[in-house]
Amino acid sequence: MTRLWFAWACFFRVLLDGAFAGRAWAVRDRLPELPSAQPSPTSPPLAEGPTDEELEEAREAAQAEGRTEGRAQGALTLLSLLQSEGRFVDFIKQDITAFDDQDVGTAARVVHDGCRRALKDRVELSPILDQKEGAAVTLDKDADRQAIKLTGDVPGKAAAVKGTLKHHGWRAKGLKLPEPTKGHAHDIVFPAEVEL
Fold first, then answer.
1. How far apart are the first and last CA of the chain?
2. Cα-Cα-Cα-Cα dihedral of 151, 157, 161, 163, to 10°?
3. Residue 155, domain member (yes or no)
4. Is the residue at 157 inside a domain?
5. In a domain, 191, yes or no
6. Which of 44, 49, 63, 150 has the least CB density, counted as fewest CB within 10 Å?
7. What is the pLDDT of residues 127-185, one digit of tens each?
8. How many domains are contained in the chain?
């Protein structure tokens, strides 16, 4: 039954994922020829197929690879939006040491406006802490240490703490990335432009 599920999963993966299909084809070409249907009495016994545990490990590895690929595609899609709307990559890659402050400020306004628009349209963000920066805050011992970074003289996890808010933090509450079209190359952050 596991082999049937595996064959079904591979069928759709090969059909929908060109990179996986290429790897599967390369492995197929390296497989040894199958033994004849009637083995001779002196021939060694046929090797059995993969065990259920081996198939489960392969399935988990494929899922982990898919998650990694999905994260990379999402990150590149967001970077592409920031470039399209605000020329973010151009600004970051540019050596601005040769420009005066007024030119940098003018460019920064254009980049800021475009990137702000891209984020506003695609990512719903909210502050983690509502207080203003510089305000005194008290955190109980159960405060989410992933959402709140403590700096300075940090006590053990069991203690409540008082401190000064340096940055309110951001939490993503929603993300609306565009669906990629068929054949979309995720590694193309922004296409080269040639005017004719």
1. 58
2. 10
3. yes
4. yes
5. no
6. 44
7. 999 999 999 998 888 888 789 888 888 776 667 888 999 999 999 888 887 777 777 77
8. 1
